[in-house]
Amino acid sequence: MNTRILVVYYSSTGNTRKLAASLAEGAREAGAEVRLRTVAETAPPEAIATNPRWQAYVDSGPHAELAGLDDLDWADGVAVGSPTRFGGPAAQLKSYLDTTGGLWAKGKLADKVATSFTTASTAHGGLESTVLAINNVFYHWGAIVLPLGYADPHLRETGNPYGGSFVSRKSAEPDKEALGALRLQGTRLARVAGYVADGLRAR
Ligand SMILES: Cc1cc2nc3c(=O)[nH]c(=O)nc-3n(C[C@H](O)[C@H](O)[C@H](O)COP(=O)(O)O)c2cc1C
Q: Would you state the pLDDT for residue 181?
């Protein structure tokens, strides 16, 4: 049976979406079956309209395929991504995570392998605090938290050991280095989630 990976993210101007796609690609390369899903945009239209890039992103129709609780239940491994918002994850992503209480109460989220990623406009603007805040949810789920680490030489040059990340200030969209790190994160997630899932199925 293929390892099942859910990649779920929120994005308002497309950066996190590109990181999510690269992570999904890495997981697929490792042989996993992958679902790539976003979460609902809940900001009021007047707030979205204040930022032409946000408006253009919403108009491009990225919210056609939203993550459901069934996707989370299905997955052996989960990658969760959000842009950094005032040093933490976006409320839109948190709203989705806050619907998982029913699965949590039934113990359905325990033993999933979980990892997180982000993008912020500045290097010291909260990349790590966002990743760590997302990871706090994983601890409550009883998930196995998977950091990115420095295992691959590419990550020693460009990585963030806490989780894949991208500093967007001087670039319209994620660069080759960041996308490479996210791809490695996806490969690592698929591999480790596969080990755990095989062990659980063999019980
Ligand atoms: C309301 C708001 C809060 C933000 N807070 C931070 C922040 O705390 N630190 C930072 O470096 N960037 C911050 N940013 C910038 C975004 O994290 C950054 O532009 C990111 O690359 C956007 O990703 P996206 O295209 O997936 O939405 C903020 C942006 C918005 C709109």
A: 96
